[in-house]
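TICKET #2291
ISSUE: user wants both folds in one file
ATTACHMENT 1:
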Amino acid sequence: MLKKSLATCILLASFFSAFSQFDSASTPPPVTITGSVDVYYRYNFSNPKTEGVYNNYTSFTNSQSSFELGMASIQASHSFGKANAFADLGFGRRAQDFSYNDGVNNSFFSLSNVKQLYVSYAVTDKFKLTMGKWATHVGYELVDAYLNRNYSMDYMFSYGPFFHTGLKADVSLGGTSAFMVGIANPTDNSTTTSSTKYIIAQFSTGTKSGKLKGYLNFQGANWGSGGSTNQFDLVVTGAVSDKFSIGYNGTVSSSKPDGGDSKSWWGSALYFNVDPSSKVGLTLRGEYFDNKKGLLPIGEMPSSIFDLTFSTNFKVGNLTIIPEIRLDNSSEEIFEKADGSGTKSTVTGILAATYHF
């Protein structure tokens, strides 16, 4: 009897030991939490007096002589096996402007706080499916302020897509090349009643060293009424040395209404980045933006705009302080002086700070 009890105890101990090892191996890893905050002060030296006029036609800095809260972001990521989930919540005017179609326009106010939310599954090590809402692949600049060296945004970012909600597939082609293709709601819509869907795509490649990278991006749709929308976008980045790099972004967007003529806008920008030390970074952005066909609601008349932005990044750990000066020059008088008259040029100063964790 004692031998049987002892054998039973040994068997049970072995079973629980094996189960414990199995359970430990099956225990999901902890959730990864990251986040960021940004704040700024903006002053336009033309100092327009008309209510609601800030001499600002780009995203996220629509204020004058005011200390402003940009955005607080909290991101949670979790992977287990081949599956992954990601949630990115944003609070503040930057998040509200990013999800501008949500809230007042559709009564889904909580959706305006969801910057990104998606689940992914890696079918193989070279093929991954993702479904949900994610920041756009189009363009050079990003919604999170700490990921940009300039604090103010360019025109191409402001009038291109912000995000997509749909299903996409990422495919590795081996080496540094890959492509993405997907289907999504109309651009910048977290929810929609439209049956029209956009096709999105990207081809990316680069050198083995990673010093030169290129991204060819696309989004487009054919509307059931006979209209269409298409945008082609190119991003190239190159590291000349450890202290100097160059970025380029060029894009062209066209739209054809049903029974109407096709209209388009296009832009091109260069980014020169110099890092004298690990604590100081300098960036000069020059952009030409052509809206002469009047496709976009910029000012009261079609125009082309050249903007030149110089930003300094002072880095103290995860804190970055960004003093910035910006010149916007238009072919038409789309900006306003303090006396209410029009002007083609305006200068803006910004002092911003970002922190990420």
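ATTACHMENT 2:
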Amino acid sequence: MKVILLDEIKGKGGEGDVVEVAQGYAENFLFPKKLAVAATKGNLKQLDERRNNIAKREAVRLATANETKAAFEGKTVTVDVKVGDEGILFGSVTAAMIADAIKAQLGMDIDRKRVELGKPIKVAGAHTVAISLYREIKAEVVVLVGVTAEELAAEAEVEEAAEVETEAAAE
């Protein structure tokens, strides 16, 4: 069934796109939530008339997403959790916890569904997490789990010194 999307739907398209979807998906999900309308001749004609407005909104969304991406670049967020021996967490860090930490520490309100975390984080340390802002635009944030930036820097210095010692001993 062909439908005209009225809003962005992940994996399907953006506002104004004409896409093919299953009839049940359209009738039971898209239409009741007003995310799409059927692609009839009348609706397609209205879409042609609205194309200019849709293009303007799309440009604003892209600009906003790029600004947000620039604001996220190089940022670090700390999530406080209990850490056991050998850096294993009691529990795990979820996308919702990362979204809350971003809101509290960076002042940016991000929906937890936009945090792309393949599986929950269960090990302490620094983890790079992608945040889907709009369509293909993604920002990356470093999430420190159970450690602070100072502790991480100190660990890196100790490891570097150990590597130098092993190289010197090998020679």
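RESOLUTION: both attachments delivered.
EXTRA DETAIL ON ATTACHMENT 2: The chain has two domains: 2-70, 73-170.
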